[in-house]
User: Which sequence fits this backbone?
């Protein structure tokens, strides 16, 4: 068997995503292992092995009551917070239905609540035929619930759901104030408080409150996944979600998850031990937060915090950096072995934060939010290492021109030739001549204007043109974007809208082009031609000497897809670059527009053989991560490694499709998604010995 290539040891990981989940503490893992191996009995059995298991179960419940300050009421072990939320909701709504007159009543929940809550309310409201109306309680810019709104609505509510600490921002609600408002208007309304992010971060004395239901989850505080518990206030409505067996005093049937409960047992012991030094005091956690925030502000001078520190627990920082998408920050942090997230881990595919939207923050902050969270068991050494790596990651972003420094740094960007930028399925193209420091923009996208402007400023480019394949006027979005992009680098002698006035009208037409062109524009030593005027296409030549006839290597065709028309302007070898690319084709060939198959089949090899490929000097490893990711974690392999982000794949195809056609190539990235795209594209363009590393760099660690 081939030994996997090592990239970074797991011990080098800095995990700062504890609001999503936490690592299991060694003593908790040991308790789980011991229970599985030695105390494996069924707690319902009457023999000694069963009685030993029963002791762990009962003692864990007793310790749990001490931790949350609940000597009365029920403490029911569950599979986690989601089950606890479901149980609380079905209990409250079943009781409300028994009481009658539910139609037109409110089901209130905080606008920044975890999605498990409103979705559970909607589900059971429909399933039970309650016919109540869900209503989100607004929050202010600090994420605090609108008490006036609650006061005016809660009397007509069947249930109200709030949370103790928000999972995205760490904002902590004032529970005594909430209780005063709620009970002042509705003494009997069912009140659930999501306490998942509160455990271990503050004092809880639930029996001294009128909170009816409080779900908790073990994996948010160094326990395993699949275990949690639910507090239910004494004499409040309860309907079992799972029935059939009578376990948990008939409140939750099914054989108890004893290893998970043993984990909670050890966790509760730690929380109650005044002498323990595993969980740090609040003062230490606040110091950690100050150190991390100082490092972040130094690394990202334009950083904006998305929550006020005075209203937040000290273990969470949620921030945005103007002009830098959260994806770019997360990717470079991940490459630096720092684990963070954008908002809720349960919403990883969402491009903006509904929590920050509810707080009324600007769109750019919602779309660029990054959450950094650590746990109360975090050590000082982790914080020190994190601060150092945050600065290294920011340096990589500056060298990739995603951040513009206020110093005199002049980074030598590797960008040269045709660069494809994307926003969703829409494509924008940059034509860059690195030596001449010249750039042209084709089909600018509003969401990318600031990024392009930073690149122009960072590299001191002179912008030769900002053009579009759509009809353009001085009031069109592309024209306005031209003014933004050109602010620091355009030719002052021309009108910045559309095809430049100084484009040569009499330059020689490209070889093989049978349609008229409207002059040409020099970008370095390449010529850019325009064909048509209402919805033009643009043809780009290869680098040429003066007076030499150009060949068309790239065609920027907008939404034009008629092969018979394009065939008059381009050759079979021309790379066709469209405005829309929903299937990540990156570019197309004329034959493909005619539905003709071309290229090679993608090589499908086993992971063991891929590892073998990586150990051969003749293999070319194409690292399709972004430049900043590659810089933070360069790959040291026996094979040759080159950095070719997807943004530069078009130029790579143009440069190497002849000399690399038969060379063994392995594409790789962080997760395997981008490398799969790259490998498929390369095979279509005639690279006939291409594979990609399924699972990405995770398989190399």
Assistant:
């Amino acid at each position: 068997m081939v030994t996997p290539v090592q990239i970074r040891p797991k011990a080098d990981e800095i995990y700062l995503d504890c609001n999503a989940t936490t690592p299991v503490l060694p003593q908790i893992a040991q308790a789980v292992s011991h229970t599985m191996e030695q105390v494996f009995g069924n707690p319902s059995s009457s023999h000694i092995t069963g009685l030993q298991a029963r002791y762990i179960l009962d003692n864990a419940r007793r310790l749990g009551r001490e931790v949350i300050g609940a000597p009365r009421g029920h403490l029911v072990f569950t599979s986690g917070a989601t089950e606890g939320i479901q149980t609380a909701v079905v209990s409250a709504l079943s009781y409300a239905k028994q009481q009658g007159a539910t139609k037109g009543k409110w089901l209130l929940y905080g606008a920044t609540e975890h999605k498990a809550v409103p979705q559970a309310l909607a589900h059971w409201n429909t399933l039970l035929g309650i016919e109540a109306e869900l209503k989100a309680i607004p929050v202010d810019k600090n994420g605090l619930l609108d008490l006036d709104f609650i006061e005016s609505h809660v009397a007509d509510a069947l249930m109200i759901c709030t949370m103790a600490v928000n999972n995205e921002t760490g904002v902590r609600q004032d529970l005594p104030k909430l209780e005063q408002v709620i009970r002042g208007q509705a003494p009997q309304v069912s009140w659930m408080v999501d306490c998942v992010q509160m455990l271990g971060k503050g004092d809880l004395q639930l029996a001294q409150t009128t909170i009816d239901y409080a779900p908790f989850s073990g994996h948010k505080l160094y326990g395993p996944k699949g275990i949690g518990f639910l507090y239910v206030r004494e004499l409040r409505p309860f309907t079992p979600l799972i029935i059939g067996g009578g376990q948990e005093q008939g409140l939750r049937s099914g054989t108890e998850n004893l290893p998970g409960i043993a984990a909670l047992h050890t966790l509760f012991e730690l929380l109650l031990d005044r002498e323990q030094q595993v969980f740090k005091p609040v003062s230490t956690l606040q110091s950690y937060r100050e150190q991390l925030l100082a490092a972040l502000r130094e690394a990202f001078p334009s950083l904006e915090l998305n929550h006020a520190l005075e209203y937040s627990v000290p273990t969470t920082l949620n921030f945005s950096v103007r002009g830098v998408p959260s994806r770019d920050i997360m990717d470079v942090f991940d490459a630096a072995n720092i684990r963070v997230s954008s908002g809720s881990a349960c919403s990883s595919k969402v491009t903006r934060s509904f929590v920050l939207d509810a707080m009324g923050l600007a769109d750019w902050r919602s779309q660029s939010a990054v959450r950094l969270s650590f746990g109360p068991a975090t050590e000082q050494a982790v914080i020190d290492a994190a601060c150092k790596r945050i600065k290294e990651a920011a340096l990589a972003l500056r060298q990739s021109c995603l951040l513009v420094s206020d110093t005199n740094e002049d980074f030598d960007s590797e960008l040269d030739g045709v660069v494809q930028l994307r926003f969703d399925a829409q494509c924008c193209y940059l034509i860059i001549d690195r030596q001449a420091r010249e750039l042209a923009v084709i089909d600018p996208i509003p969401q990318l204007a600031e990024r392009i402007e930073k690149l122009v400023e960072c590299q001191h480019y002179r912008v030769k043109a900002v053009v579009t394949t759509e009809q353009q006027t001085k009031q069109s979005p592309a024209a306005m974007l031209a003014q933004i992009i050109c602010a620091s680098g355009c030719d002052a002698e021309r009108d910045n809208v559309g095809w430049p006035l100084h484009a040569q009208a009499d330059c020689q037409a490209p070889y093989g082009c049978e349609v008229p062109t409207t002059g040409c524009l020099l970008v370095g030593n390449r010529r850019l031609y325009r064909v048509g005027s209402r919805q033009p296409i643009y043809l780009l030549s290869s680098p040429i000497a003066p007076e030499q006839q150009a060949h068309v290597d790239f065609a920027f065709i907008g939404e034009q897809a008629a092969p018979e028309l394009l065939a008059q302007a381009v050759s079979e070898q021309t790379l066709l670059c469209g405005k829309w690319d929903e299937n990540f084709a990156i570019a197309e060939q004329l034959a493909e527009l005619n539905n003709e198959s071309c290229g090679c089949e993608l090589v499908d090899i086993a992971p063991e053989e891929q590892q073998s490929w990586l150990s051969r000097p003749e293999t070319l490893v194409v690292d399709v991560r972004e430049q900043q990711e590659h810089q933070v974690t360069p790959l040291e392999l026996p094979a040759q490694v080159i950095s070719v982000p997807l943004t530069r794949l078009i130029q790579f195809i143009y440069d190497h499709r002849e000399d690399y056609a038969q060379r063994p190539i392995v594409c790789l990235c962080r997760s395997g998604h981008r490398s799969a795209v790259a490998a498929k594209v390369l095979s279509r363009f005639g690279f006939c010995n291409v594979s990609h590393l399924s699972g990405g760099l995770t398989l190399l660690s």
In short: Confidence is low (pLDDT under 50) at residues 1-8, 344-349, 491-496.
